Amino acid sequence: MTAKTVQGKAARPSYPAETRASAVQEVLDVQDDHPSLWAAVTEVAPRVGCAPKTLLEWVQDSGLLQTVDSRLLSNRKRLAALSKAELELENQRLRAENDVLRQACVIFARGPAGGGF
């Protein structure tokens, strides 16, 4: 990492592409352990040695975030479809059981066919 000077002021240090890529990957790796992307970024930024805002820009510029989000969305849709199918099967089973119970209630409500117990 090297710092440049611009008109007498210290400019932001430039980070090698490998450092940026590994920092972005680290954020993506720990993101599930945090309530938000910002929380993950603020944890990783000090380890990398950059400002959290800078690291957030790297993550956003990488395009990996959209890929991860679309994969998660796809998995959620698949899970929802699976859950819906399971619920429909369960509903059919419960309706069939209810029909059997209704028929049994009708039979028992008529009383004993042979006269008594």
Order of helices and strands: EEHHHH
Low-confidence stretches: none
Q: Main sheet?
A: 2 strands, antiparallel
Strand content: under 5%
Mean of residue pLDDT?
81
**How many β strands by DSSP?**
2
Structural class: mainly alpha
- The end-to-end distance, rounded to whole angstroms, is 95 Å
Shape: rod-shaped
Strands of the largest sheet, in order across it?
Answer: 1-2
The number of helical elements comes to 4
Helix content: over 70%
**Rg (CA only):** 31 Å
Task: Kindly describe this structure.
The chain is 72% helix and 3% strand. By secondary structure, it is mainly α. Strand 1 and strand 2 (9-10) form a beta hairpin. The longest helix has 47 residues, at 64-110. The protein is rod-shaped and about 105 Å long.
Helix and strand arrangement:
Layout: E1 5-6, E2 9-10, H1 17-30, H2 37-48, H3 52-62, H4 64-110
Antiparallel strand pairs: 1-2
Helix pairs in contact: 1-2, 1-3, 2-3
Jot down its keywords.
2 strands, mainly alpha, 117 residues
Task: Describe, in short, the structure shown.
With 117 residues, the protein is mostly helical. It has helices at residues 17-30, 37-48, 52-62, 64-110, and strands at 5-6, 9-10.
